[in-house]
Amino acid sequence: MRPELVCPAGTPAALRAAVDAGADAIYCGFQNATNARNFPGLNFTVEEMEQSVFYAHERGTKVLLAINTFPPAGKFDLWKEAVDAGGRIGVDAFIVADIGVATYAAKTFPDIRLHLSVQAAASSSDAIRYYCKEFGVKRVVLPRILTIPEIKVLAGEIPCEIETFVFGNHGLMVEGRCSLTNYVTGLSTNMDGVCSPASEVKYERDATGNLSSKLGEFTIDCFSCNDKAGYPTICKGRYLTDCRDGAYYAFEEPISLNLAQMLPDMIEAGIHAFKIEGRQRSRAYVKSVVTAFRKVVDAVLEGGVPDTADLVSLTEGQKQTEGAFKTKKWR
Amino acid sequence: MTCNLTLGPILFHWPAENKLDFYSRIADEAPIDTVYLGEVICSKRAPFFEQHYSAVVERLERGGKKVVFSSLCEVVLKRERKAIEEFCSFGSHEIEINNSSALLHIDGRPHRIGPMMNIYNEETMAHLASRGASHFVLPVELPRASTEILVARGRELGTGIEIQVFGRASLAVSARCYHARAHGRTKDNCQFVCEEDLDGMPLRTLEGKPFLAINGIQTLSQTYLNYITEFQELITAGITDFRLSPHTCDMVLVAENFKAVLDGRKDPAEADAALTLMMGDSAFSNGFWYGRPGHLRV
Q1: Per residue in A133-186, pLDDT tens?
Q2: Domain A4-171+254-330 has what CATH class?
Q3: Within the 215-254 window of chain A, which residues sit less than 8 Å (CB to CB) from chain B?
Q4: Spatial distance between the Cα atoms of B237 and B230, rounded to a whole number of angstroms
């Protein structure tokens, strides 16, 4: 089995770059709250989506449309319109999380594949089997919490394909179940598609030269003059608590997931598609990561040893982790 | 229309004797209609209280309370899946589902849908109701406008609608145990260190500002939701059930104040003053209801 390389695109230019760099499939979303990366200046108009799908299909690449947030009551029409537009354009799959959206997509476009978003938080074979039985889901994007032996067992228990993240930002909370951003900013990850929105981010330098990164009213981290200040994502911040001396990363360090070295084991475990995180990243980044991963995946498929030096340099000096995939001790 | 005051499941790892004392007092003294029992956060904690459920159920029912059992919110391991499957065939009491793995086994039997299940819209509600869901606890972050629409749909479907009105808000869950992590351990060798923090382990920002509370794999708000001044509005909106989430503060006093406002015996401002006297000035928030940052008290 030849696994798919599923690559991110936040803009039509990034989509073309990913297609040209050898992506098997691209995932992307519309310019609104219907997808989980609803950032200013990112994502596609309906017209751009149509042109982009044409570009990708001409070159044999699939386009997977992320409609993976949770429509709050009263706004459901926006999500229906996204499904309708995607169906009319002829995307290759809808990536959904909400049961209402899944119901609508399965009923309206029974011939278009449904992929279960990581935002649906289906972390056991029973949960996945429910979505397969109820909505005919063809692929699940797994939460980043299982070890590879666990995924291998899971693969034998479910009637659909498995997609896992292999590179990029590493979320710590169960995705689709996190209201931390809303608690701080009034904007919801589930309903508005934002996590630590840039409009709420501030950097403040104090008299001694230390730089605090803040989200809304709350300080998420603080850096001395020599440190590179990180983006204030709540689950990557440093905090104080009574049982610790001084600041610590209560949830996780700012760290990037990189599973390049584990790809042979992952293919053997029965994973159908490898997903690269980063729809918010630039076209140049997408091109570099997709090119590097294409080489790695092809080398693995030919039985060779993957060269991952290019990928290490793309983590921008951040620490790397194999996260939960490597060992249960991550938990 | 009847409105019910409910007591949510105890989210924290209280010693068994604390739980027994707590439920005895609730059974005898608290004006609460429905009590949810069960370990929702961590399957490792569950065995500590299993042997006591029958006695607690009996005591609560003798006190005139309806008992509902709540399921685990994170289901990953084989033994957790097995426990959920058994839970779904539970015949004696109503059950509340908090993870979609249970939906595979429920097979049309009546059940409640818990607050971790992401019921954000009427389409999701209608679909689950068609499969036997009879009652929905809405996500804590859902604002007023959306709640009102779901209440109207719930009325058409004949289902109950519940929201949390008191206690720390659950903001996130994870596969990782942050209690264990804070103590340099992992989930598998946690030694139940979460037992030290009966209302959660406070996290402060680097300036010392109170921010969040850790409860094993769960992250909660530092502030306690308190909708007592909105309570009349919630009742008028048609919400049927109002959840108090258990803490170590005097939950009988909390229940009495909500009940007094519900019955029109007490002015909401007066009830709020009583809760503030117990918990302090900066303890409460209600921002989610207004679509504002959740930590604010509007």
Answers
A1: 999 999 999 998 889 999 999 999 999 999 999 998 877 789 999 999 999 999
A2: alpha beta
A3: 216-222, 235, 238-244, 247-248, 250-252
A4: 11
